[in-house]
Specification:
This protein has about 475 residues and is an alpha/beta fold. The chain is about 30% helix and about 20% strand. The chain binds S-adenosyl-L-homocysteine, iron/sulfur cluster (SF4) and FE3-S4 cluster.
Length: about 475
C-alpha cells in the first residue's frame, strides 16, 4: 500500500545542491469540473507564508469548481499546518481528532492535510498509523498537484492520496490565487530558507532560499494596486537575502525601491534577518514614505554563547550595532523582535543577556517562545539540563519586561491622530472597528460609515500595552 505514496524525508530536505527550476503553471482542463457541486473549507495555522499558500489552494479549488463554505462541515476540509513548535502541532492533532466525528457521520467528507507538518516523516507516519480519517496529504512543494490528487480521490476512488516532495523546491508562477481580503495582500518575494538555525524546522519544510524575479513581483504589486489594494506585505523567511540566489547583482534594496515606485499606499516586509540587513536597504526604506515605518528584527537571544549554538550568524554586538544604525536613520520607526527562551542549557547569565537586549532596544513588542525541540534539527540532539519550571519562569519575567516597554512606547500616541487602514468590525464588538497604523499598532475605534479597506484618521483616546483605542476623525481618501 505504502509504495503508492510519495512520503517525506527530512534528510533529503537538507539537500541544497540542485539548481532551481522556474515554471509557469497551467491547470489541466480535465480537472475544471472536478469540484462541481462540492464545497470546501480551509483552516490555516502558522505564519504568513502559510496564509498565502492557503490563498493559492483556494485559487486552485475555485478553478476546479469547488465553492468556499463558511461551515467547516463542507465536502472538503483542508488543514494547512505549522511545524515550528510542538504546540502548533498539538493543535492540528486535536483538530484532526474533532474532525473524526464528522467523518463518522459522512463517509464522503474528505480531509486533507498540507503545510509544514506534511513535510515531516514522523508526523506523516503518525497520521498514517493513527489518524485514518485523513484522506489526502500534500507537501509545501506539492500544492500545484492538488487537482491531480483530488482527482485520484474523487474520480479514481483512491482511498488515500499522498504526495510530499523533499527537495529544494522550485518557483512556480501563474498559479491561481483567491485572496481572502480585498485591501491588503501577501506577496511572496522568495521562498525557503538557507540559514539553518539549529532549532528551526523551516529550512527542511520549505526548501532552499529562492527568489522570484523582480519583474514578476513588481507586476503583482501593480496589479494589486490597480484592483484597489492599499497595502502589500513582501514575504520571505529572510527578506534581506532577496536576490542573492539570482546572481543578477541586485538585492532587497533595489526591490524595495521598485515596489515603492508602484505608488501603492503601504508596503510592509517580513521577516528581516539581522545578518543580511545592509546600509543600502536602510536608505531604500528611508527614501520611500510608502514603506511602512515598522521593522521586525528577530534577535532570538541576547547571549553570544546561545546565538552561536543557535547558528544565528551574528553576535549581540553586531545586532546592537545594526539596531543603532537603524535607529539613527529611521528614528520614529516601531521595532519588534522574536525571542526564544530556554534553548538547551541556557544559563541564568545567558538569559540575563536576553533581558538586557530588551532593555537596550526598548522594543514596541516582542514575540516570545519557549524553545521547542524539533526532531531532525541539530538542537534536538543537544543536551539540556534546564527544567521546564525554570524556562516558564524566565518566559514570565521576559513577558513582563516586554509589556512594560510596549506600554511605554504606546504612550506617545495619546491624543494623537493616526492613519488607520480599516480591517473591518472588531472581533469583540461589531460597533467598533479595527485596523493598523503604518507602524503596525492595532487600533480599535468608533465611527460611522466606515468600510473595510478605508484609510481613516483616528484620534487616540486610550492607550494600552498591545493596542490603542480611539474615535474616527475623517476619511483620508
Ligand atoms: N524566518 C524568521 C522566522 C521564522 S519562525 C526568522 O528567522 O526570524 C518564527 C519564530 O519562531 C522564530 O523567529 C523563532 O523565534 C521561533 N521559533 C522557531 N523555531 C522554534 C523552536 N524550535 N522553538 C521555539 N521557537 C521557535
Ligand atoms: Fe528558521 Fe533561522 Fe531560517 Fe528563520 S532564519 S526560518 S529562524 S532557520
Ligand atoms: Fe510554521 Fe512552516 Fe511558517 S513551520 S511558521 S508554517 S514556514
Amino acid at each position: 500500500m505504502k509504495k503508492d505514496y510519495i512520503l517525506p524525508d527530512l534528510n533529503k530536505a537538507r539537500n541544497r545542491r540542485n539548481s532551481i527550476e522556474r515554471v509557469s503553471f497551467n491547470i489541466d482542463e480535465n480537472y475544471n469540473l472536478l469540484g462541481q457541486g462540492k464545497t470546501y473549507y480551509i483552516e490555516t495555522h502558522g505564519c504568513q507564508a502559510n496564509q498565502r499558500d492557503s490563498e493559492t489552494i483556494a485559487g486552485l479549488l475555485d478553478k476546479m469548481g469547488f465553492v468556499a463554505s463558511k461551515d467547516e462541515n463542507a465536502d472538503l476540509f483542508i488543514i494547512n499546518t505549522c511545524a515550528v513548535r510542538e504546540g502548533a502541532e498539538d493543535k492540528v492533532f486535536g483538530k484532526l481528532g474533532s474532525l473524526k466525528r464528522i467523518k463518522k457521520e459522512r463517509k464522503d467528507f474528505v480531509i486533507g492535510l498540507c503545510g509544514c507538518m506534511a513535510q515531516e516523516e514522523k508526523t506523516v507516519e503518525r497520521i498514517l498509523e493513527k489518524y485514518h480519517q485523513v484522506d489526502l496529504i500534500f507537501g509545501t512543494h506539492n500544492i500545484t498537484s492538488l487537482p491531480k490528487l483530488l482527482s485520484d480521490i474523487y474520480e479514481k476512488s483512491k482511498k488515500k492520496a499522498i504526495e510530499v516532495y523533499s527537495k529544494e523546491g522550485e518557483i512556480v508562477e501563474d498559479v491561481p490565487v483567491t485572496r481572502f481580503v480585498g485591501h491588503k495582500a501577501w506577496v511572496n518575494i522568495m521562498y525557503g530558507c538557507d540559514k539553518f538555525c539549529t532549532y528551526c524546522i523551516v529550512p527542511y519544510t520549505r526548501g532552499k532560499e529562492r527568489s522570484r524575479l523582480l519583474e514578476d513581483i513588481v507586476k503583482e504589486v501593480e496589479d494589486l494596486k490597480n484592483s484597489g489594494y492599499k497595502e502589500v506585505c513582501l514575504l520571505g523567511q529572510n527578506v534581506n537575502s532577496y536576490g542573492k540566489d539570482l546572481g543578477l547583482g541586485y538585492g532587497f534594496d533595489v526591490l524595495l525601491r521598485e515596489v515603492a515606485k508602484t505608488g501603492i499606499n503601504r508596503i510592509r516586509f517580513m521577516t528581516s534577518h539581522p545578518r543580511d540587513f545592509n546600509e543600502d536597504m536602510i536608505d531604500a526604506i528611508k527614501d520611500n514614505p510608502n514603506i511602512c515605518p515598522y521593522i521586525h528584527l528577530p534577535v532570538q537571544s541576547g547571549s553570544n554563547n546561545i546565538l552561536k549554538k543557535m547558528n544565528r550568524k551574528y553576535t549581540i554586538e553586531e545586532y546592537k550595532d545594526l539596531f543603532d544604525r537603524l535607529k539613527a536613520k529611521l528614528p520614529n520607526f516601531a521595532y519588534t523582535t522574536d525571542i526564544i527562551v530556554g534553548f538547551p542549557n541556557e544559563s541564568d547569565e545567558d538569559f540575563k543577556g536576553t533581558l538586557d537586549i530588551v532593555d537596550y532596544c526598548e522594543y514596541d513588542n516582542c514575540f516570545t517562545f519557549i524553545y521547542s525541540k524539533r526532531s531532525g534539527t541539530p538542537a534536538a540532539n543537544m543536551e539540556d539540563s534546564i527544567s521546564r519550571e525554570v524556562k516558564e519562569a524566565r518566559l514570565q519575567e521576559l513577558n513582563k519586561k516586554v509589556a512594560y516597554y510596549a506600554n511605554l512606547k504606546n504612550q506617545k500616541y495619546k491624543d494623537q491622530i493616526v492613519e488607520v487602514l480599516v480591517d473591518g468590525p472588531s472581533k469583540k464588538n461589531s460597533a467598533v472597528y479595527s485596523g493598523y497604523t503604518k507602524d503596525n499598532k492595532l487600533v480599535n475605534f468608533t465611527g460611522e460609515n466606515i468600510k473595510t479597506g478605508d484609510l481613516v484618521n483616528v484620534k487616540i483616546t486610550e492607550v494600552m500595552s498591545f493596542s490603542l483605542n480611539g474615535e474616527l476623525i475623517n476619511k483620508v481618501d
